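Hi, here's the filled form for the chain we discussed.

Project: internal
Contact: R.S.
Residues: 235
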Amino acid sequence: MKTENKEGSPRAPASGAIRTNRALIRKPVPDNRGKTTAETFLRNWRDSLVKAESERARHEEASSSSTFAEYAELYILHKELSQSVRPVTVKGYRSYLGKIVGTELGSARIGDVTPKLAASWERNLMAEGLSTATLSHIHVFAKQVCTYARRMGDLPANPFDLVEAPKRRAKPVNSLDAAEVARLNRALRGFGPTPLAVGIRIALSTGMLNLGGSIRPIASRPFLWVASTRTCGSN
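And the returned structure, exactly as it came back:
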């Protein structure tokens, strides 16, 4: 049905609308948001395929003839592309790789690595003065590389399974000996159940530490013992 204006002529349809025999229907406005989302999805999918193909190609290069350093690099790449570890962990892996490249272990074929060679490499690292914690992290990393090579079928057994991991040196316990405890108990007799005496007795019963210097009677150096007791409590 046609619509007419005041002059009686047909009224022009509004912008974006079409005429039909029964009603005036507005044409839908195109929505490009779905197109943008689809393009983003396809771009990410393409990038993931490129990464996967790159990883597959690199893995095809690895074999029992690859050096330990080469296999360690491939292991880091695998972890990086799979995003199974955090970037800070990958950074740590690459620092450990620096302790492998250029060494006898790093230059050896992955299939020729023996427990003897691995142990010799770790002794050389210890000679460099590395901390026990750092040595332990490097040991774990090298062991993970061999585990990965074994899973890929390039290593029959993990040589690091037979190498003892570096252990942290136990810190000496700097506690009072029996003579010092007896001397301190004698000095406490004249203080009775004061808060200071009670606190020191609790410290003695739970393992009071020698904070340096010789044990002196409380009467001669009272503030020394007050400070020492607070220090023990803060630990």
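Let me know if anything looks off before we file it.
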